[in-house]
Structures are given as C-alpha cells and as structure tokens.
Amino acid sequence: MSTRALLRTPIVFGEAMIEDLSQQAQLAAAEKFKVQGEAVSNIQENTQTLTVQEKSEEEEVDETAIEVKAIELIMSQANVSRAKAVQALKNNTNDIVNAIMELTV
Questions:
Q1: Is-above-0.90 flag for pTM?
Q2: Tens digit of pLDDT for each residue in 51-84?
Q3: In whole angstroms, how large is the CA radius of gyration of the chain?
Q4: Alpha carbons 74 and 90: distance in angstroms, whole number
Q5: Is there a contact between 92 and 99 (Cβ–Cβ < 8 Å)?
C-alpha cells in the first residue's frame, strides 16, 4: 500500500482481504463433522457385518412345546429373529410378556 503525497488517497495493489474468524470456525466445525461422519459410517459397516454373521450363526431351533403364535408375537413385538424369540420363550418358561421384556430392555 502506498499513498500519494498530494491526494492522501491510499492505493492498494492486489486483492484486499479481511480475515473472517467466523468462517474459519465454520470450516473447523465442518471438518469435525466430516471426521465424525466417517466414524459413523465405519460403525454402520461393522453393524451390518455383525448382522450378516448373526444370521449365518442362527440355525434351526427346537420349537417343540412352544406355540407358533407366541413365537410370531414375540418376533413382531421385539423385532427379533425366530431363533431369538424361541430362546427367550425357553428362558422364561413360555411366558410371553417376560420374553418380550428380556428382548427389549
């Protein structure tokens, strides 16, 4: 920057830029959320992998002495697989309410 002696008018060469601290804070916050987003996507990938593994591990279970309607009710209310519903019923001596509570709490 220079000034002329007679006019006392500043002359600026190049682009005059003002440092915007709020914009820097926004960029830092965006970068923070970007890192968090990557962590969330990694967690989702791990969860999907575990779900596939659980499905492959679950095999036919012994459903004797358990009502089919009770199994279906638990599956719909607790949003679990058939094997988990049968296991919960066995753990709670065919008590539907306690089986649902075991799976949802």
A1: no
A2: 545 554 456 777 888 888 999 999 999 999 888 9
A3: 32
A4: 12
A5: yes
Residue 87 near residue 100, CB atoms below 8 Å = no
> For strand 10-11 and strand 2-3, is the pairing parallel, antiparallel, or unpaired?
antiparallel
Non-local CB neighbours of 81 within 8 Å, separated by 6+ positions? 54, 55, 58, 75
d(CA 94, CA 105): 18
Contact between 103 and 74 under an 8 Å Cβ cutoff? The reply is yes
Measured distance CA(96)–CA(77) in Å, rounded: 10
Residue 50's contacts (CB-CB under 8 Å, 6 or more residues apart) are: none
pLDDT tens-digit readout, 29-50? 777 777 666 666 666 666 655 5
